[in-house]
Specification:
Layout: H1 16-22, H2 26-48, H3 56-75, H4 80-95, H5 101-124, H6 134-156, H7 164-169, H8 177-185, H9 198-206, H10 234-254, H11 266-271, H12 274-305, H13 329-333, H14 338-344, H15 347-358, H16 365-377, H17 381-403, H18 412-433, H19 435-439, H20 442-451, H21 455-466, H22 472-497, H23 501-510
Helix pairs in contact: 2-3, 2-12, 3-8, 4-5, 4-6, 4-8, 5-6, 6-15, 10-12, 12-18, 15-16, 16-17, 17-21
Length: 511
């Protein structure tokens, strides 16, 4: 069972007095302070180091040096692991053969991350919940492995062998060491991400994401092109900072009142009716999620403040700043299916898992994806219990959706009833399977599941056995729909991100 110890801070002690005043661990104070500093630097970076005023080289250097400074302030000498991991992986990318470079890079990068996680958990501080140096390494791991696969796609495969999204992400030249370090360790994403594609990051550094864009169905002149001034992220940043403030206030107000650990307390289990235990578990998880909302929304705001994250325009002409957003809060809280919840939670990680595992694994990609997610998160046993349960829950949810949902699509009222039922089921199921993710250890996790009589696990097995899985015809139709969706998204991305007249002319020819 995990023994909770007082987390020690390996970074700067400059803010120790502030930590004592507000009664929060120093490493968490350092993290928030560095993110606030990064937000201010992002505004300065966008205004004074704008692509129109300085070269990409200067922007790369400044972004990288600021990133290393923040890492040193938060994690001290442990931040050297970021350089070691990046250096080893870059050596593999440069010196290994292109045919198998992506596989070797994946093994080296994930291996180094897991080694650091093992030593941190089982050697230094088992059960530490506070910020630690392996958190940024998890994001760097995503970036390095994504880069390796994108280089492999761009330099070794023909376009006919790639999916539409792989064509868009493919990299046609080897990045320099400076570009590589800037992509991995820039100050905007060094502490909390989010992950982004290398091509999108380079477009931001070079300023090409703001060039005139080609528009289909335009009646104007200049071959469908129009002049568009660079949109300001001010309103978006203010909105996300307000979301951060609300999320932090909710978390600090509720997380001590509704601890998840109470759900496995013997007195609570013995004295509380089961239906109230279900309600309490949902409320406890509801109180826990704002912590992630705060961290990820603040990280998104930092990138937007620097001018990164622009994703074209809405139909009403308003700019979109969700290119690298990591969550959609309303979609999470109102999710009516397991898939919808996962698609809107930690979005960039889900895309990473899809692109390097789910789309490429030839055998049981669902199970492989959940296993990779568990390995990436860390070595606590609770992670593996959560993701193993998640795989089973996903299979059962697919079977229910395929076999049961069509009967409720006959009218709006029936569909509304179905949505309410599936919302309640989704929220309870998510709360049920993530308990091990929170308590971490095997003993408390199994104790909780035993208090629920493993009910949802048993239900998933029965559903999977009783209901037929998707037929080959249905799978083929879903695959076709998915490819069409990827194609549509690719066209949208090309419309929004195209930066040269040549691309515009090619699009006109295709039309």
């Amino acid at each position: 069972m995990a023994t909770h110890t007082k987390a020690s801070c390996t970074g700067s002690t400059l803010l120790q007095p502030l930590s004592e005043i507000i009664n929060l661990p120093l490493d968490q104070v350092n993290f928030v302070a560095c993110q606030v500093f990064a937000l201010l630097m992002a505004v300065w970076f966008r205004i004074y180091l704008h692509p129109s005023k300085t070269s990409p080289f200067i922007r790369h250097v400044v972004a990288t040096l600021l990133g290393f400074y923040l890492a040193l302030f938060c994690f001290g000498w442990y931040s050297l692991h970021f350089l070691v991991q990046s250096g080893l992986s870059y050596s593999v990318i440069v010196f290994a053969g292109l045919e198998h470079m992506h596989k070797y890079c994946f093994i080296v990068t994930m291996g180094y991350l897991i080694l650091c996680q093992i030593t941190r958990v089982y050697v230094f501080d088992y059960g530490m919940y506070s910020a630690d140096f392996t958190g940024p390494m998890m994001v760097i791991t995503q970036k390095i492995t994504s880069l390796a696969f994108e280089i492999h796609d761009g330099l070794t495969k023909r376009e006919s062998q790639l999916t539409p999204s792989q064509k868009y992400l493919a990299i046609s030249r080897m990045p320099s060491l400076l570009e590589y370090l800037s992509y991995n360790c820039n100050f905007m994403g060094i502490l909390a991400g989010p992950t982004c594609s290398y091509n999108d990051y380079m477009a931001f550094i070079e300023g090409t994401c703001y060039q005139p864009r080609h528009q289909e169905h335009t009646n104007g002149k200049e071959n469908g092109k129009y002049k568009q001034s660079e949109p300001s992220p001010k309103n978006e940043v203010i909105s996300k900072l307000c979301t951060c403030a609300i999320s932090l206030a909710v978390y600090l107000s509720l997380y001590k009142l509704l601890p998840v650990e109470r759900a496995i307390d013997d007195d609570f289990v013995n004295s509380t009716p089961f239906h109230l235990q279900v309600v309490y578990l949902y409320l406890a998880m509801l109180a826990l999620r704002p912590k992630y909302y705060f961290v990820w929304t603040l990280a998104d705001a930092i990138n937007n403040a620097a001018g990164f994250g622009f994703n074209g325009y809405n139909k009403d002409g308003s700019p979109r700043w969700d290119l690298i957003s990591n969550l959609r809060i309303l979609n999470i809280e109102l999710a009516t299916s397991f898939k919808v919840f996962l698609d809107n939670w930690n979005i960039q990680t889900a895309l990473w898992l899809k692109r390097i595992c789910y789309e490429r694994c030839p055998i049981n990609p669902t199970a492989a994806t959940f296993m990779l997610s568990a390995m990436w998160h860390g070595v606590y046993p609770g992670y593996y219990l959560t993701f193993a349960s998640g795989a089973a829950m996903t299979m059962a949810a697919r079977a229910i959706r395929h076999n049961i949902r069509p009967y409720f699509m006959v009218s709006d009222s029936c569909k509304c009833i179905y949505d309410v039922i599936t919302w309640a089921w989704t929220q309870v199921a998510i709360s049920y399977i993530v308990v091990p993710f929170v308590v971490l250890a095997v003993g408390p996790s199994l104790k909780f599941y035993k208090s629920w009589y493993f009910s949802l696990h048993i239900l998933c097995v029965l559903v999977t056995m009783a209901l037929p899985m998707k037929s080959r015809r249905w799978q083929a139709k879903e695959l076709q729909d998915s490819l069409q969706k990827d194609k549509d998204n690719l066209q949208d991305n090309r419309i929004e991100h195209s930066s040269t007249d040549n691309n515009c002319n090619q699009k006109d020819k295709a039309t």
